[in-house]
Amino acid sequence: MTDLSDIARSAKAWPFEQARALVKRVESRGTEKPVVFETGYGPSGLPHMGTFGEVVRTTMVRRAFEALIDGAYKTRLITFSDDMDGFRKVPTNLPNQDMLAEHLGLPLTKVPDPFGEHESFAHHNNARLREFLDAFGFEYEFLSSTEQYKSGAFDEALLTMLARFDQVMEIMLPTLGKERQETYSPFLPVSPKTGKVLQVPTLERNVDSGTIVFEDEDGEKTEVPVTGGNVKIQWKPDWALRWAALGVDYEMSGKDLIESVKVSSKICRVLGGKPPDGFNYELFLDEKGEKISKSKGNGLTVEEWLTYGPPESLSLFNFTKPKTAKKLYFDIIPKTVDEYISHLSAYGRQEPDKQVENPAWHIHEGNPPEQGSPISFALLLNLVSAAGAADKETIWGFITRYQPDATPETYPLTDALVGHALAYYRDFVHPAKQYRAPTDQERAAMEELVRRVRALESAESDPETIQTEVYSIGKEHEFENLRDWFQALYEVLFGQSQGPRFGSFAAIYGLPETIAMIEGALSRDA
Fold it and tell me: In sequence order, what E strands does 141-244 have?
């Protein structure tokens, strides 16, 4: 059997392309140092779709890299929380607004938790982040900015930034407006008197003693060390500081941060580090093609997606064309779910060189489950619609008739999809249903369909046999485009313009039930 690392060297899937570039970066430095992957998180808000996308895509590159190097290097995935940042604005969706407003300017780890559950607001959101990542089974190391600054882990890099202050300023000042240039400093001192993170100029810097002098809020000149958590670095230099101090080899970011990556990379080199590899992914768009914004609330949340589709489908959405802008709204969930089912079904029949190109390999970190789903999500949606079902047991009754060996235990993905289909039908399909009466041509064709289906054995469950009859009727009744015939079936019978292959639906729903459904629709519109 061909070795996986050999196959990976020529694999075309984008995580392997990223991984091969990373191999070139690290192959000359020896194998004793682990290869560090990083994702960043701002704990002023809860984890969201972008958080998931960045971690899942980075994990895909990490696993592709591990397949390439065949154990030659150890790897780490760091999820870094910028929780020492100053609390600048009170989010409107939080409780205890007045209390929070009293703590503006403090590091997020010093702002009380408005929910009263954790040590601070940052600790609350950090806990949510870890719960979020753990729920998906991600393998990662959590690092807190506050802990890194206070523990001394960043001290060496901080002293280097102090010594090379002028070089950092030469990089940063051209990126700022004239008014900001006059007061800018990469060092944000933490006031010894108020505990606030201050955006004030650096009046003096003492490289030998490792300190800076600034004017505190009361107007008094104050000297503090840049080490030990006494300062916080502005975010672009902070990003560079983190890369240099932690030895980050790979970090991706959104397209909106392209210029920030360039600036931080320059500063990283000034600090003696090497900027990480990575790429800029495109941002998600809403149904109108506008950029998704947390403040606008115009996009899908992770929780909403997982109500209507399994987590693997969300991973597939993030895997597919990460450098292409994609609309993220409810209508794309059923299509993405069925694409995942298709990829998983194909995986077991593929040769190893094709398997590594299959999204299922990347979604399941090289080990996809053998069992998928014999039934598509689109078919389940139509089954729920036709049966008027509101519970799993009813739908499973139809499934076991079609596939007697199927149970929720033997087909866990199908069982999950039944739950998702019930929720999606309830919230989106049923409210949008618009039945119409058939035309004379369509009525005649449907009456013929009833006769043909009745002529089949009542236990007939071969979808192709049923589909052949439907197809023949469309041709015999001279539909100019057979697509119009199938669309008529969906609109008249289901109240929607699209659906699965009708033969597959009838096979699982049952021929007597299918006949009753057609006759009911025809009598309703007679």
Answer: 141-144, 187-189, 204-206, 211-215, 221-225, 231-233
Asked whether the beta carbons of 86 and 197 are under 8 A apart, the reply is yes
DSSP readout, 339-383?
A: HHHHHHHHHTTS-HHHHTTSHHHHHTTT---S---SS-HHHHHHH
Per-residue b/e over 325-335, b at no fewer than 16 CB within 10 Å?
eeebbbebbbe
Instruction: Determine contact, residues 39/79, Cβ cutoff 8 Å.
Output: yes
C-alpha 318/C-alpha 214 separation (Å) is 45
Can you give the three-state secondary structure of 21-47, one letter per residue? Answer: HHHHHHCCCCCCCCEEEEEEECCCCCC
Q: How far apart are CA 44 and CA 40, in angstroms?
A: 12
| DSSP strand pairing (187-189 vs 204-206) | unpaired
Considering Cα of 153, then 263, then 191, then 98, what sign does the dihedral take? negative
Query: What pLDDT score was predicted for residue 489?
Result: 96
CA gap 16, 1 in Å, rounded: 20
pLDDT in tens, 213-267: 999 999 999 999 999 999 999 999 999 999 999 999 999 999 999 999 999 999 9
pLDDT one-digit tens code per residue, 73-90:
999 999 999 999 999 999
| 8 Å CB contact between 312 and 372 | no
Task: Name the packing angle between helices 412-424 and 392-402 (round to 10°).
Answer: 130
How many whole angstroms from its chain centre is CA 263?
A: 26
DSSP sequence for 225-274: ESSTTSEEE-HHHHHHHHHHHHT--B--EEGGGHHHHHHHHHHHHHTT--
Distance CA 58, CA 54 (A): 6
Q: Which residues contact 266 (CB under 8 A, 6 or more apart)?
A: 171, 240
